[in-house]
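Database export, one record per block. Field names are fixed; values are copied verbatim from the stored entry.
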Amino acid sequence: MDLLRCYHGFVTRLTQAIEHQARVATQAGHQLERAQEALQQQELRVASVQKLIERRVTEIQRKGERHEQSQLDEMASRAAWNRLAAATTRY
């Protein structure tokens, strides 16, 4: 009879341990899902920021190119005026 009670107690503790581990596994699964969702949201945010940075860099490059072209046009205009002025003062 004692052996039967010990066996029954062992089976009860084993069942409780299995149920506890099942709850732990379920909680870990839910925690994993929440972490994956948070990761996806953060990755989306990073991608958005990277896209914004790319746009800003492109915009800065375009402004620089326009400024450089303006400077070159100004220099070409001055050179043409200088040549014209030099040509008219020779005669």
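Remark 1: The CA atoms of residues 69 and 75 lie 10 Å apart.
Remark 2: The mean pLDDT is 94.
End of record.
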